[in-house]
Amino acid sequence: MNSEYMSRFVTAETAAKAVRSGDWVDFGFGTGFPELMDKALAARAGELTDVKIRGGLVYAPKIELLEADPEHKAFTWYSWHIGAYERKKQAEGQIRFVPMLLRQVPFLYRQHYRVDVAVVPVSKPDADGYCTFGAANYCFRTIMKAAKTVIFEVNEHYPVIPGPEGSNRAHVSEADLIVEGVHSPLPVQSYKAPTETEIRIAENVLAEIPDGATLGLGVGGVPFTVANMIAGSGLRDLGCHTGTISDAYMAMFKAGKLTGANKSFDRGLMTWNLAAGSSEFFDWLQDHAALCRPDCLDYVHDPARIGQLKNYVSINGGVAMDLMGQENAETAGTRQLSGTGGQLDFLEGAFRSEGGRGYICLASARKAKDGSLVSNIVPFIPAGCTTSAPRAMIENVATEYGVAHLTGKTVRERAEEMIKVAHPQFRDELRAYAEKAWK
C-alpha cells in the first residue's frame, strides 16, 4: 500500500474525536456495524451531547453507546429497521424509528440528510489499498459522498468480495481516517426446525415456482423452508437477486439448483445487497466470491431493474392480512417489530416481471397468551397497525390452506380468495363481514 495513506490509520479512540456534540453520524446497516467505533464513542458518553446516529437491523448482541447512555443525553439512535436488540431498546424508549422503503434511503442522503461523520465497516485492504464493503454494501458509497468526514473501520473477519467492476469495493484514499483492531467474530443467524404449518405453507409456494425463476427470499422460517425444499426438488437453473443473501441460497447452490443461467442480466451471478447467516455460510460466500455481485440499494432494490428479470419470484413473510389483501408486515399494534425494509421493493419488481409473482406467506392463525386461537387474516387492518404493502401490490398470499391469487381481482373476489386460505374456525365470520361490506 502507498505510504501516503499510512498516516490515516489511527486508533478508534482518536477517530472517535472526529465526532462532536450535535453531529449526525452514520453507523451502517445489518452486518455492516462498526464495533470498535461503537465502543470508542460509548467511552465519550460523558463529554458529548445530542449526537444523532443512524443505523438499523443490528445483528450485534448490543450497541455499546446505548448501554453507556441509557438516558440518551449523549446519543440518540435512529433506525429504519428494528433488529432483535433494537426491539428490546425500543421498549425502553431508546430507539427512534424512521419508516422507510430501503430503495428510498439513497435519495434521502442525496437530497435531505446531513452527514457529519460516516463510519464505514470494510474488509482488510489489499496491497493496492482496495477494501470491500464485505457483507453489507448497503448504500455506503452514497453516504460517503454526503459525509463531511469518512472513517473506515477495518474488520478482519469480513469476507473479501470485490464484485464485478468493483461493485463492492472502496479505496483507502476515500477515507479521512482508518481504524484497525481486533473484532468479535461476525454475528451469526440460525434457523429453528420448521413447524408443520411452515412446511405446508412452503409446499404450497414451491408448487408454483417455475424452472429458471430468479428468487428474492426474505428472512424467516418460510423462505428458508422453501429453499431447503427446492434443494430436494426437481427445479433447475434458479437465480439469485435478493436484498439479503443467506444460508437459504447456500442450500440451493450446494444442491446444484442455483446456476443463474436464465437471468437476463448478472447471468451466472448471485446479486445481493446484504449477507447474513451462519459461520459456514460466510465461509461459503468467501469461497464463491467470484460468483457474487454485491451492489448498492440503488441497483439491487430498484423495481424497474428487478422487473427486467423474467419469472422473478419474491417470497416474504407477513404478520397479518386483511380481506382486501392489505398487509401488515412489521407491527403489533403500535409496537414496531421490524420495518418495511425491502419487501415492497421486491413485490413491485415481481409485479413488473414477465411471468413474475410475489408471495406473502403467513400462518392462517396464531395462539394468544391465553391459549386461544387468533386469526391472522382479519376483516381489516386494525387501527394502530401499519399497512406495509397496499392491496394493489399484493399478488399472492400463501397459508397452510393454500394460495390466494389476488392479481386483477375485484375487492369482493379478493375477499373470497382470502377466506379460502383462512383458518376454518374463522371463515364464517370473515364471510359474514365480506357479505355485509361488499354485497
Main β-sheet description: 8 strands, parallel
Number of helices: 15
Strand content: 15-25%
Question: Order of strands in the sheet with the most strands?
Answer: 1-10-8-6-2-3-4-5
Mass-distribution shape: globular
Q: Mean of residue pLDDT?
A: 94
Low-pLDDT runs: none
- The CATH architecture of the largest domain is 3-Layer(aba) Sandwich
Explained architecture:
The protein is of the alpha/beta class and about 450 residues long. The chain has 2 domains: about 5-180, Glutaconate Coenzyme A-transferase; about 195-435, 3-Layer(aba) Sandwich (Glutaconate Coenzyme A-transferase), CATH 3.40.1080. It is built from 15 helices and 25 strands. It has helices at about 10-15, 35-40, 65, 85-90, 105-110, 140-145, 195-205, 220-230, 245-255, 280-285, 295-300, 305, 345-350, 410-420, 425-435, and strands at about 10, 25, 50-55, 75-80, 95, 115-120, 130, 145-155, 170, 175-180, 215, 240-245, 270-275, 290-295, 310-315, 320, 325-330, 330, 335, 355-360, 365, 375, 375-380, 395-400, 400-405. An 8-stranded parallel sheet has the order 1-10-8-6-2-3-4-5. Helix 7 crosses helix 8 and helix 14 (about 410-420) runs antiparallel to helix 15. It is globular and about 70 Å long.
